[in-house]
# Entry
Amino acid sequence: MADAKNSGNSISKSEYLDFEDKIANIDRQITELGKLSCAKGIDYSSEIRQLERQKVAELRQLYSNLTAWQTVQVARHPKRPLLEDYINLIVRDFRQLHGDRRFGDDKAIVTGLGRIRREKVLIVGQNKGRTTKDKIACSFGCPNPEGYRKAILKMKFAEKFDIPVVTFIDTPGAYPGIGAEERGQAQAIAENLFEMSQLRIPIICICIGEGGSGGALAIGVGDRMAMLEFAYFSVISPEGCAAILWRDGSKAPSAAEALKLTSKDLIKLNLIDTIITEPVGGAQRNIHDTVYNVEDYIVRTLRELRRENTDKLLEDRYRKLRSMGSATVSSISVKSKAAQERIKEAVTAIGKRPQPTRV
# Structure
């Protein structure tokens, strides 16, 4: 594994996360030894190699035991690979498609046709922007209704020509402005959920950073759902949850733990299918290896889905969606016997309800 110095994606002192003080200190020592070596002509290569080994060991230990809140911080890292990095590095002959034919072209959602190795795909992804100007132009990755309408319009176009869809999820949530609400934000998200569940083409969804609320769900319905190891996927941001429950944003770390938003939590709950591993120290320390892991997952999964009969693909997708959020009484910890009986009655009543008719 290439470390930060060798990967070409080294992190400046101001960009270390709060819990990376030891890593910052080791990097400072490596930098100082490098300067001394140049100034005095003394060979410190053995000391530098020892420090680099120490750094990798420290990163490995640190990132194998991240808390939920630390995972959120990693997912928001300013050097983490964004949609444009994936498009530039793994998508050949990319041709961007614009507009929703109703209102405008939302820059927070990027759609386009291209090739990943030999596979023709439609790319749909959320764009956060790297520079301040780009971030403002795409509302910091918070899509408007026209962005979601553009996404589903292009997906239906892909369905017509039997082109699989790959979505890259990376958003704090849908844009919450008055204009977005006036143009039907909630309806646009709901329509995407409905339409994506019925598209007769393979759909792969990958959470590469933040997966916030309905803004992420609107392009997150598919046959396979994967997450990068240090991404997060949640019904609400930890800060938003803390503000509602405790009226105190400083409780965000506690909210993050309660929300079960990490990839390890979500795969235990059967809400995602795969965790895509990141290099030691997170994707921000080695963009190329991260992107390669994602590319490899996409190609393998597309080949697997291509072998499936379309009707079976849709049936499996439907069952996958219907099974989300299911729980048994034994999985719920309740001390009161009366409460246990009420839960059993509720579960029994829900099981007897008629299932909704599929359209």
Summary: Residues 13-65 form one domain.
